[in-house]
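User: Could you write out the 3D structure of this protein bound to iron/sulfur cluster? I've included everything you need below.
Assistant: Certainly. Input first, then the structure.
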Amino acid sequence: MVEEQLLDTIKREQGLLQSEVWKTFDIDSKKASRLVRKLEQSGMIRRSSVVSNGSRTYLLEYNDTGSPLDNLFSGGVLAPCIECSTECRPAVCDPLAQWTVSAD
Ligand code: SF4
């Protein structure tokens, strides 16, 4: 399963650029984004913004500290993604935007 292979690679390599995921696993970039989002939402990995070769991307790192459940909360509020069944479009998702603001 690609998801498990991706997680193993992130652990083994001690990080992986998100821009390399689709190339490494020979999948389209949309599927790569979905896999990364799923792993991040589950608390298995964390992402941090970086610039590589002049382009912005994310460094994916294995999240081996704390409980995976910690990432499901922001400002004590449970992530809206947990009970969401709509087509995921994070860039225009009001519940997600409101949830991330709740941490401030
Ligand atoms: S649509 Fe919004 S709330 Fe639903 S899974 Fe996507 S980001 Fe989360």
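The chain has a mean pLDDT of 87.
User: Perfect, thank you.
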